[in-house]
Fold these 2 entries.
Entry 1:
Amino acid sequence: MATQETVEHKYVYDFAEGNRDLKDLLGGKGANLAEMTNLGLPVPPGFTITTEACQAYLTTGREPDGLAGQIEAHLESLEREMGRRLGDPGDPLLVSVRSGAKFSMPGMMETVLNVGLNDRSVIGLSTQAGGNDRFAWDSYRRLIQMFGKTVCEVPGEEFEHALDEAKHAKGTRNDLDLDADDLRGLVDAYKKIFAKHTGREFPQEPREQLDLAIRAVFDSWNAERAILYRRQERIPADLGTAVNVVSMVFGNLGPDSGTGVAFTRDPGSGAQGIYGDYLANAQGEDVVAGIRNTVPLQELEQLDKSSYDELLGIMARLEEHYKDLCDIEFTIERGKLWMLQTRVGKRTAAAAFVIAGQLVDEGLIDLDEALHRVNGAQLAQLMFPRFQLDHDVPPVAKGIGASPGAASGKVVFTSARAVELAAEGESVILVRRETNPDDLNGMIAAKGILTSRGGKTSHAAVVARGMGKTCVSGADELEVNVPAKKFTVGGHTVGEGDVVSIDGTTGKVYLGEVPVMPSEVVQYFEGSLDPEHIDNPLVRAVHRIMTHADAARRLRVRTNADTGADAARARRFGAEGIGLCRTEHMFLGDRRELVERLILAAGEREREDALAALLPLQRADFVEIFREMDGLPVTVRLIDPPLHEFLPPLEQLAVNVAVAQERGEDVAKEEALLSAVRRMHEENPMLGLRGVRLGLVIPGLFAMQVRAIAEAAVAVTRDGGTACPEIMVPLVGAVQELETVRAEAEKIIAEVVGDSGVEVLIGTMIEVPRAALTAGQIAEAAEFFSFGTNDLTQMAWGFSRDDVEGAFFWRYLELGIFGISPFESIDADGVGRLVRIAAEEGRAARPGLKLGVCGEHGGDPDSVHFFHEVGLDYVSCSPFRVPVARLEAGRAAVSTTGSDSR
Ligand code: ADP
Ligand code: MG
Ligand code: MG
C-alpha cells in the first residue's frame, strides 16, 4: 500500500520535462510537443498524462493512486503560468484534451477543445476577447459538440444537423455568417441534444469536464475499432494511450487568426518546398473537415507576413532537428503563431526514396540512414505498372488497396462468368460484395478483384495477395447486386461487360479503361534508363540507395528461374546466380509423350529408350541457362513432383477410353495409361512418391538428369564459358537417401567431366522437418543446403498450401493467430527454428557448408532480415523480387538499432 512516505509514481509530465525519445511513456504527440517546447518553439503550455496511468486505469478500472493529485498540481502550475484559472467566470483558462498513443491509431478518441467553458465563463471569455461574443459562443458550441460526441457518445450527426438548420434559417452555407445570437441559439439546441442522449445536463463544472474527458481518452484505447486496428497492425494491446492537456490558443478570433496544417516537403512526390493548407478564422479540425475552402499555405504570406516567415523558419528548424520530412499543425491567434503538433510525416513510396536521397545531398543523413528510411515493400510498390492519369480523372469510389497493381477489365459478378470470359481472352474484373472459397476459380481467371466489403484481411484480400493479383476491397460506396448483375455507385450503374479500372495500391476505382504505364523503376532495373544521365529524381534516388545496399549487404541474392529468358532478366535485376532451377517444365509440352513412354515402359529396355530421348532435350535447356548465367552458380533441382502430374487427369482418360471403345477404335494405349494413372493415384500426393523418393524408385531417372547437367556444363565450358552447376536433391529426410543418390551421381559426373575443369557440387534441399533435425548427419553427404521454406512451412504446420489459404486463413488473420500468412513471411518462431537448427548443426558438421533459401520467402522483406540474422549465404527469389531482396539484405546489414518502421 502506498503510504505518505513512499515516493509516488510519476504519472504526469510537464511539456518541459519530456522529449521525443519518451514515446513509450508520453505517446507520439506528447513526446513531440515536449521536444518542440525544449527547442524553444512556441508551444502552448501543457502537460501529458502517461501511458502507464492509462494502463493502470485499464487494468484496475479506476485511476491509480496519486494521479488525481498530480493532475491537480500540474493544473495549478499551468494556471499560474497562464495567469488564469480553469473555467474562471471572469477570465477562464481553457484547455484541449488530446489522446496520443505511441503509434497513431484510428478508432481512438480524438480531441476535445475548449474544455473549461460553461454558461458563465463564456461571458468572461467574450469580455477578455474584447467583447467578441461571436467567438465566445462559437467556442462554447464546439465544446458541447466535441464533448458530446467523443466523451458521451452522442451521435455527431445530430449536432451537424442542428448547425445546418441554423445556417439554413440564416439563408447561408457559410458558418462565418452565423452571428453571436445565432450561435447562442445553437448552444441551446446542442444542450438539448446532449440532455436527450445522456439523460443529464451538460456538465458546468470545469474540473468535471476535464476528468471526464481524460477518462474517455483512457477508455477509447479499448474501443472496438481501436482493438481491430491494433490486431491487424500487430500493435500490442497493453501499450495504452497518453493524454495531453494543452492550454487553448484560438484561431477563431477573427480574420487575423486562423489554423493550418503543413508538410516540410511534398509527401506525394518528395519534392522540396513547403506544402500546406490554411484557413482563416477557424479552429482545430476545420482545415481538414472541408467545411470551408482552405487556401494554399503560400497565401499566408500575404495575410500575415511575420507569422509566415516565422513558420517557415520553424519548419526548416524541425527538418534539421528531426532530419526528416515533418508534418505540423499550427494556429495563429491574432498574429501570434503557435505550434500544436509535429511528427515525422507519412509519405508515398516514391517520396520515401526521393526524400532519403535529398537528405543525403543536404548532409543531414548518411547513406546507411537513407537505406533505413526506405524498405522493400515500398520498392515493390514502385515496380508495379501504374495507371497513367494525365489529367485529374476522379475515381468513382475508393476502397482499401488490398493487393497492389493496376488492372482494367470487363465487370463480371460470378466466378463462372469470370472463367468463361477469360477463356475467350477477355480481361475481367470480378466484382463481389465479398468473396468466399467458391470464388477461387473466378479469382484466378480475373485480372483484378473488387469487393464492396471487407478489409485488408478479408478473404478477397488475403487470397489476391497470395496470387499476386490486383485487389481493391471494402469499396463501400458500391451497391453490388449480384442477381441483377450490376452495381451502382455515385449515380452510375455498371453492368456485366462494362469496363472498370482498379488501383490495388491506392484503392481507387475508375469507370472505363485507364491506360497502364510501365514503372520507370523497372525500366531502370531492366537497364533501359541510364541512372547517371537521367533527371527523374526517383530513379536517381533508387539507383543511389540500391548501390549502397549492394555494397553493404552480406547476403548474396540469387533468383528462381527455369528458362534462359527468366535467367537473363533476373541477371539484369542483379541476381548473382540461380538458387532454384526447377526441371519440371522440361517434362511438359511435346515431351509429355516421352514421359508417358517412361511410365508405361514394359521393361528396362523401353525405359532406357525413353530416358535416352529425354537426355538431349534436357541438356539443351541447361546449356541455355548456363550460358545466361555465365560465371555464376546455378542450382538445379532434380525432378520433384509426383510423376502422375505429367499424365492426363483420370476422368478425362476414362471418358476417352469409353468413347474410343464405343467407336470400336484401338484403345490399348489409353487403357494402359488409364491403369497406370489408377495405379499411381495417391490420397496425399504432397506426402507421396515425389522428390528423392522418385529418384530411388525409378531407375535411371536422376542419372539421366545428372548426365544432362554435367554434359551441358562441359559443353558450355568447352565453348569458352564458365558453368558452375550445383545439383540439388529435393525432399531428403534421411542422409541415406542422399548418399544413395550421391554415389550414383558422382560416378556419372566423373565420367562426363573428365579433365574439362568443370566442378559440380551436390547438395540437398532442407524442406522436410526431419532433414532439419538431422542436419548434422545430412551435411556429411551435402556440399550445400537450400531451405525449401514453402514445403518446410507446409510440413511444420501441417498446412496444405493449396487448400488452406483460400479456406480459412482469412479467419486466422482476423483472429490474430498470425499477423501475416506464414507462406508470405517466415514464421520465425517455428519454421525459423528449424532453419536455425539445420544451419548450426550443418555447419558444425561441415565447416564451409553453403547455405541458401529458395522458397518464396527469399523475396519477402521480413524473412530476408531473418535469413541474414541466421547467417545464410544467399536468398533466392523470383526475378521481380531480386531488387527487393537486394535492398532488404542491405538494410539488414546496416541495421544496428531496432528502428520503428511504423
Ligand atoms: P488529431 O490527432 O486528430 O490531429 P489533435 O489532438 O491534434 O487531434 O487535435 C485536433 C485539432 O485541434 C488539431 O487541428 C489541433 O491543432 C487542434 N488543437 C488541439 N489542441 C489545441 C489547442 N490547445 N489550441 C488550439 N487548437 C488545438
Ligand atoms: Mg493532430
Ligand atoms: Mg519442395
Entry 2:
Amino acid sequence: MKKFRRIGVLTSGGDAPGMNAAIRAVTRTAIAHGVEVMGIYRGYSGLIDGDIKQLGIRDVSNCINHGGTMLYSDRCPEFKTEAGMAKAVETCRRLEIDGIVAIGGDGTFRGALELSRLGVSVVGIPATIDNDVGCTNYTIGFDSACNTAIECIDKLRDTMQSHERCSVVEVMGRNAGFLALYVGIAAGASAVLVPERPVDFEKDVVERIRNSRLAGNTHFMIVVAEGAGSAVEIGKKIEEAIGIQPRVTVLGHIQRGGSPSARDRETATRMGYTAVNALAEGRFNCIVATQEGSIEEIPIEEALKMKKNLQMDRYRIMETMQLGNKLSLTDDY
Ligand code: ADP
Ligand code: F6P
C-alpha cells in the first residue's frame, strides 16, 4: 500500500464559502494520521511557482467561519500546458509531496486527472457555488450562495412590493441553473430562466407576468441565471413587451462571499476528513462525492464522465407556485 508522508492541499477555480472548512479538515485529519500538510497557494499556480508553506494544526484555527479561501485561488492557464504541468510535477518531486487534495470544480479535477497521469496521487473535493459537478449531488458553497441570494431577493421583494414593480435579478451560473432554480423556488419567483432550458420569452416571461397580474399580483420577481441571458436585456424586453419598467439587479460576486452556512461547513469537514482518510488508507485518484447524503469515493476518470441534469421536476414545481399558471401535463420538460 502506498504510504503518504507529506501531502499538499490547494483551492482552485472560483472560490466558494466552505473552502476554508475543507482546508482545515484536510490539515487536521492529515496531522492526526501523522502526515505532513503543505498549503499550496493560488491553486495550480502555486504548484508551478513553488508558492507552498507547511500548515500546522493552529494555522487553520479561526477559518471555519470565514468565506473565501485562506490559500487563495486562481485560474492557471499555464497548468494546461505540457511545460506548466512538468513544472508542477517537479515541484512535487522537489518538496516530496506525494499526494494532493484539490478543492474546486470540474476544471480543477481535469487538472488533477492530468497530474495523476504523471504519477502524482490526487483526491478531489467538489466546491463551487454552481453545484455543477456531475459526480456529486452537492458541492461545497451552494447552500451559502443560495442563502445569500435569497437574503438579497427578499430585500428586493420588499421594495418591489411597495412600488408594485417588476424585478429582474441575475444570479450566477454561467453554464448551470441549479442556483437560479433553487433560489427561484425558495424566493417565490414569478419566472426562472436557466441555461439548460431554451428560453421562450413570450411563454416563459411575458405570459407569466400577465397571468400573475390577472390573478391579482402587482409585483413580479424574475430570476435569471447568467448563462440564460443578461438581466439588463431581459429587463428591456419586458419593458417593450408589457410597458412596465423593471428594476434590474445583478447579484454577481456577492454570492461567492460571506460566512459559510452550517451545511457547507459540515459537508466540507466530512469531505476533507474522507479525502485524507482515503489517502491514508492507500486509495487515491478519486473524488469524494455526496450520494444520497453519504460520502463516496469515485475514481476521477469515471467521475469526470458523469453528468448531472438540472432537476426539471423542480422547474415544474416552481411554475406551479406561480400565480395564475395553468399546468399542462403535455408540457415538455
Ligand atoms: P473550476 O474548478 O471551478 O471548474 P476552472 O474551470 O476555472 O474552475 O478550472 C480551474 C483550473 O483548473 C484552471 O485554471 C486550470 O489551471 C485547471 N484546469 C482546468 N481544466 C484543465 C485541463 N483540461 N487540464 C489541466 N488543467 C486544467
Ligand atoms: O464559481 C462559479 C462561477 O461563479 C460562475 O457561476 C461564474 O460564471 C464564474 O464563477 C465567474 O467567476 P469569475 O468572475 O471569478 O471569473
